[in-house]
Amino acid sequence: MKNWMIETVSRTALALALMGGLGTVTLQAAEVKSIAILAPEQGTDMGWNQQGVDAAKAAGAATGVEVVVAENLGYGDVRPTLRELGEEGASLLIAHASGYNTAAPEIGAELNIPVAIVDSPDKLSAGKIADYTASGHDGAYLAGRLAAKMSRTKVVGIVVSGEPPSWNNMSVAFAEGVKAENPAVEVRYAVIGPAAYSDAAGGKRVTETVIASGADVIFGQGNGSSFGMLQAVETTKATDGGKAYFIDVIGDKTSIDKGHLLSSVLWNLTPVYTAMIDDLKADKFGSHNYDIKLSDDSLSLLKTKNIPDDVWAQIEAIKADIISGKIVVEPKYDAESVHKLVKTVQ
Questions:
Q1: Torsion of Cα atoms, 92 then 98 then 99 then 100, to 10°
Q2: Closest Cα partner for 161 from 211, 222, 218, 246?
Q3: Exposed/middle/buried for 259, CB within 10 Å: 0-12, 13-18, 19+?
Q4: Burial class of residue 55, CB neighbours in 10 A (0-12, 13-18, 19+)
Q5: Are 320 and 126 spatial neighbours (Cβ–Cβ below 8 Å)?
Q6: Which residues pair with 156 in a beta bridge?
Q7: Who has the most CB within 10 Å: 9, 122, 128, 172?
Q8: Which residues have a Cβ under 8 Å from the Cβ of 328 and sit 6 or more positions away?
Q9: Which helix (DSSP H) or strand (DSSP E) does residue 160 occupy?
């Protein structure tokens, strides 16, 4: 099968580490020999796919477990790949796409292998299924506060590659953050397509339209399509003739930024996957779902050179209020909640 990689942790090194103070390996720990992650696109997108692949490797290294990476699988039927990985001995199948959340439980049940899925928290099943729909809403709320502070035109935009629960949740929180900061700032909204996650050309075209509608800060959620969003921000001036800015999600595109990346709502899934492996070893997998949060930096907002120090200090104060519970951002995963807060751009 193409595009498969295996990250192997030296068993000798693991044994030495255990002898050095981690204790003896229990029978349950020894039974978790490998895990597999299935990603729809290449693990080099500085976003959803790369975060999943990199985090799985890091979690495997931290726990002494081999990691098999199957990437660039697309958004179609992945049952054959799931079945093959399961038959080759994976102790856990991580289905890293919302489009896999039906096939993965089916194959998991067929082969009696635990699966991790996204966007279906109601499918939680002891020993079988756990969901890790990341609730990035607290970070998106901070991004909304930042966007409202930085906007010159008093119009900001949200561009998404679809409306899965994760994107909806962050879109709502972003819009709420904008309005909490400045009720006079308008929020424009556009969807590239029903599942346009890798559509970079569509991302560029739709983002250009949102900028033309008045937005000078774009909050983009899109996997591969986000590269088109960033390109549009780099090549399209805001309606006031000034520079437009981009707020990304999940990954860090600083290395390719040409001066237009304002921030990113960063996700770190390493603690999530590490917890899954630990739960497998302790026979607790499927007892709860998994999430990310500001308090342990599995969720954070990226500080770039484009954010003035005084503005960043204000954002940090808001972050502290969220962690303390002074500000509560309620998760909302449905598209209807998004549409109530924004003006859709066709």
A1: 10
A2: 222
A3: exposed
A4: buried
A5: no
A6: 187, 217
A7: 172
A8: 322
A9: strand 155-160
Q: Show the low-confidence residues of the chain (pLDDT under 50).
A: 1-2, 8-30
What pLDDT is attached to residue 346?
Answer: 83
Distance from chain centroid for Cα 281: 25
Distance of CA 171 to the CA centre of its chain: 13
For residue 35, give the nearest of 270, 277, 287 by alpha carbon. 277
The token pair at 288 is 């709860």
Q: Are strands 155-160 and 34-38 parallel, antiparallel or unpaired?
A: unpaired
- Nearest Cα neighbor of 42 from 224, 265, 250 is 224
Q: Do residues 223 and 41 lie in contact, with contact meaning Cβ atoms separated by under 8 Å?
A: yes
In degrees, to the nearest 5, what angle opens at C-alpha 55 toward C-alphas 250 and 9?
Answer: 165
What single letter denotes the amino acid at residue 218?
I
- Phi and psi, residue 250, nearest 5°: 75, -55
Q: How is residue 48 written in tokens?
A: 């959803």
Q: What is the DSSP letter of 179?
A: H
CB atoms within 10 A of CB 125: 15
How many C-beta neighbours within 10 Å does residue 128 have? 16
C-alpha 206/C-alpha 191 separation (Å) is: 8
The two structure tokens encoding residue 138: 């607290």
Q: What is the pLDDT of residue 6?
A: 53
The pTM score is 0.84
Rounded distance between C-alpha atoms, residue 103 and residue 107, angstroms: 6
* Cβ pair 79, 106 in contact under 8 A: yes
Residue with tokens 């699966």: 115
Element (H, E) at 61: helix 48-63
What is the per-residue pLDDT for 15? 37
Both tokens assigned to 85: 């990985």
pLDDT in tens, 26-76: 333 438 999 999 999 999 999 999 999 999 999 999 999 999 999 999 999
Cβ atoms of 286 and 125 closer than 8 Å:
yes
Q: 3-state class of 150 per DSSP?
A: helix
